[in-house]
Amino acid sequence: MTKQEKLAQELADALNDHDSIQFYRDCALKYSEDFLRKKLQKTLSVPEDQIRKTRGALFTYLIRDHARGTRN
Prior knowledge:
The chain is an all-alpha fold. Helices cover 68% and strands 0% of the residues. Helix 1 packs across helix 2 and helix 3 (33-45) packs across helix 4 (55-67). The longest helix has 13 residues, at 3-15. The chain starts with a helix and ends in a 5-residue tail after the last helix.
């Protein structure tokens, strides 16, 4: 198993979102491990009652928001 695959699996596990494993694989190839861990930490720090959908959806939003050039 590659380092990127391990990271993708870890993200899916932490976010309880194995249905989106391909997205996490793509992220692991495109972004640095440090960047992804920071976004994961930010996602996990949000209280459950402040999350509209799921933690996986919030993580995806933070990644895509960054890709659009905003400052998260």
